[in-house]
UniProtKB/TrEMBL annotation, chains A, B:
InterPro entries, sorted: TrpB-like_PALP, TrpB-like_PALP_sf
Entry GO MF terms: ATP binding; L-serine ammonia-lyase activity; magnesium ion binding; pyridoxal phosphate binding; serine racemase activity; threonine racemase activity
Signal peptide: none
Protein name according to UniProt: Threonine/serine dehydratase
PANTHER family in the cross-refs: SERINE / THREONINE RACEMASE FAMILY MEMBER, SERINE RACEMASE
Classification via SUPFAM superfamilies: Tryptophan synthase beta subunit-like PLP-dependent enzymes
Swiss-Prot/TrEMBL GO biological process terms: D-serine biosynthetic process
The organism's place on the tree of life at top rank: Bacteria
């Protein structure tokens, strides 16, 4: 399904739209990690996460006749904002289905990007899929899935193309590339890009404790699920299981998964703030946490890690900063 | 003294060393400002501020025979770190003279970059210039001034070259370019770069209330001083007066200065965190504050502003986040 040709095509379509995020580093982080640490801060991407890449890739790949009736996404978070912005750029409607207990700020942000937000009664047991199917049928909307969709994976893979190129400019051709992993869209996309452009590197998924479905799936060789499908502070990257399309790619290409604690994720957020001057959300900080605090599980002189997003509220951010020594 | 030829030469010397920081934006900030806002986040530069550009430019311009005996800087902040890192990259000694009442963290950070920190007794009235002259004489160190030094101005000007190029890629050729201004090194460097590369743009200095020496100097046409030479939360960009070299450049090229309150700077820090996912220090946020809250003093459909640095402690950052509505 997804392959490097699709990723390169997505990169062409994203040109001039997606930001080419820089590759950051700090000697202070290198010292903590015991090796060189290069950080790809996708929190600086439009809408504050890598999800814009996949959203824009999918929306731009649609036939214009299909696209003009609009797109649909289920999401209470980063994917919704990525799809909403992409749809607005094409001047087509975006309908985002969100639970009615989602944070007011997330609903407001998605609306501010021009999307129509349809709430479903999650606490009351309403099925978002049924709500979505009704909307698709009535209005001819096209569903953009968050990760198990080839054009979404191709869009996320453009992040991997940039990593390969930017690392090569620094003389780095061998490294573990740690990727914050939920359903595996970003991880599988980066893995495909590295296979073609930086075969000395390997992608490795990083997940929070209690939601290590991908790490366990890579160990067992088949899709494993989490006891809980959502929850914890790393909610942005928590999914019930790796995807049907993403998992076979990860199984073929990825190194072993890494698992970090929530406390490690908070501390990585604080260090990203202090040393890199970027804002990470808890789920967006798990790969940096692995780079900094799980060095014994990593190979090579250099480690590369993504910060997948930065959409976090101030109370959670204050918790992260509290992990630092007082100045 | 400083001119576009020097800036272009500095850009060549900085290539592969200084980061090309991206140009960020957010529809949420555009809405607050009432026009398009493009942000150049120099907080993402090495050592967390634009000062690395000038430090690296000056150290790299020295004759190798002169350079090898080492460099000297007076600074308790960003300039010290920029010079320290540049010296370490060339493998030459850096001596930084700091007051003995400087924050322990700043001293530790400068030492961690490989510099030798020499403390002088500021509360006791010791003269840092005398301490510096003694060191220069004894050890043959070369002083790198923080702003009134042509090669430092040239280095800061490379930020202006990038602004001109990155704005042109977005189709922007006319804009006020707001620059966080202390002694005027960054402002005058950017002004020279824009004169050559983007003549439809004009640099404008932004300062905090109570330290608006440059704004008043531009009005009167001669160098004016502040009642206080230091203090306030924007300490990183507070100087007693514009420089002897920087002021004539600013007088010839810059538009009127803007002045913002400390509260506006704190609120701009919070919005940079929330909407751009970058960390600004108070002094580094004054230009964004002007873009967002002083729109009536700005011309054109698009405004460009620098975030000059992000070296801030967590207590001050918490103060900034407290200016946001609760999530």
């Amino acid at each position: 399904m997804s392959d490097i040709t699709m990723i390169r095509a997505a990169a062409q379509r994203l040109k001039g739209h997606a930001r080419r995020t820089p590759l950051l580093s700090s000697p202070f982080l290198d010292e903590i990690a015991g090796r060189r640490v290069l950080v790809k801060p996708e929190c600086l991407q439009h809408t504050g996460s890598f999800k814009y890449r996949g959203g824009r890739s999918a929306v731009s790949a649609l036939d214009p006749e299909v696209r003009k009736t609009g797109v649909l996404a289920f999401s209470s978070g980063n994917h919704a904002q990525g799809v909403a912005l992409a749809a607005r750029e094409f001047g087509v409607p975006a309908v985002i289905i969100m639970p009615n207990d989602a944070p007011a700020l997330k609903i407001a942000n998605t609306r501010a990007l021009g999307a129509e937000v349809v709430l479903y009664d999650r606490p009351g047991g309403e099925s978002r899929e049924e709500v979505g199917e009704t909307l698709q049928a009535e209005r001819g909307l096209t569903l953009v899935k968050p990760y198990d969709e080839p054009e979404v994976i191709a869009g996320q893979g453009t992040c991997g193309l940039e990593i390969a190129e930017q690392a090569a400019e620094l003389g780095v051709t061998k490294a573990d590339v740690l990727v914050c992993c939920g359903g595996g869209g970003l991880t599988s996309g980066i893995a495909l890009a590295l296979e073609a452009e930086a075969p000395g590197m390997r992608a490795r998924p990083v997940e929070p404790e209690g939601f290590d479905d991908t790490a366990r799936s890579l160990l067992s060789g088949r899709i494993e699920t989490n006891a809980q499908g959502s929850g914890g502070i790393c909610d942005a990257i928590v999914t019930p299981a790796p995807g049907q399309i993403t998992f076979p790619i990860m199984k073929r290409l990825c190194g072993p998964g890494l698992v970090v604690s929530e406390t490690e994720a908070l501390r990585a957020m604080a260090l990203a703030w202090q040393r890199l001057k970027v804002v990470a959300e808890p789920g967006g900080a798990v790969a940096l946490a692995a780079a900094l605090f799980h060095g014994h599980e990593i190979e090579g002189d250099t480690v590369i890690c993504t910060i997948s997003g930065g959409n976090v509220d101030q109370a959670m951010f204050a918790r992260a900063l509290d992990t630092l020594e007082p100045a």
